[in-house]
């Protein structure tokens, strides 16, 4: 089969996949690290709360999965007839899920850090912390939805 695709379109398509994985993993790593520090700090005084406090770390890890999903979808496209429109849609989708994952990971880290420490002092704040974490996670989910639409709307 003849390959009549411009190499730059393939580059931008795969750059979108790379940005999706890279940026969401960076956000997830920040959220995990920031929340993990507070979990370790409260674990010294309140070891009974450590397992309940793991929730921000789990939510941060889910953000990286969003980028992985888009990265796999973008890289599974057949490149024999890859158009500029498909490449730029993949690039835009990767940046969309990547940047929303980055800021969502930052938000989960900040909320997780403050929330875990607050719950150690006042356990009734647990439900409020979970609600704010859900809204912070929703930012990445919005980016995932837009990226899915961009990356699957114009496939061959």
From TrEMBL:
It is found in: Endomembrane system; Vacuole membrane. InterPro entries: ATPase_proteolipid_c-like_dom (IPR002379), ATPase_proteolipid_csu (IPR000245), ATPase_proteolipid_su_C_euk (IPR011555), F/V-ATP_Csub_sf (IPR035921). It is a multi-pass membrane protein. It comes from the Eukaryota. The keyword rRNA processing does not apply. One of its GO terms (molecular function) is proton-transporting ATPase activity, rotational mechanism. The keyword Ion transport applies. Pfam families: ATP-synt_C. Keywords: Hydrogen ion transport, Ion transport, Membrane, Transmembrane, Transmembrane helix, Transport, Vacuole. Residues 16-74, 91-150 form the V-ATPase proteolipid subunit C-like domain. Its main location: membrane. SUPFAM superfamilies: F1F0 ATP synthase subunit C. One of its GO terms (cellular component) is proton-transporting V-type ATPase, V0 domain. The chain crosses the membrane at residues 12-33, 54-75, 87-112, 124-150. Belongs to the V-ATPase proteolipid subunit family. This is V-type proton ATPase proteolipid subunit.
């Amino acid at each position: 089969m003849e390959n009549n695709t411009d190499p730059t379109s393939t580059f931008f398509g795969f750059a979108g996949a790379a940005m999706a994985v890279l940026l969401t993993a960076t956000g997830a790593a920040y959220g995990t690290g920031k929340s993990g520090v507070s979990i370790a700090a409260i674990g010294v005084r309140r070891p009974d709360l450590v397992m309940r406090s793991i929730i921000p770390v789990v939510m941060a890890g889910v953000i990286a999965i969003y980028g992985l999903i888009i990265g796999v979808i973008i890289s599974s496209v057949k490149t024999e007839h890859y158009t500029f429109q498909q490449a730029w849609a993949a690039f835009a989708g990767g940046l969309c899920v990547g940047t929303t994952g980055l800021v969502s990971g930052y938000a989960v880290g900040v909320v997780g850090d403050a929330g875990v420490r607050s719950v150690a002092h006042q356990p009734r704040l647990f439900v409020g912390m979970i609600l704010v974490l859900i809204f912070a996670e929703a930012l990445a989910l919005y980016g995932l939805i837009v990226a899915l639409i961009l990356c699957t709307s114009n496939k061959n």
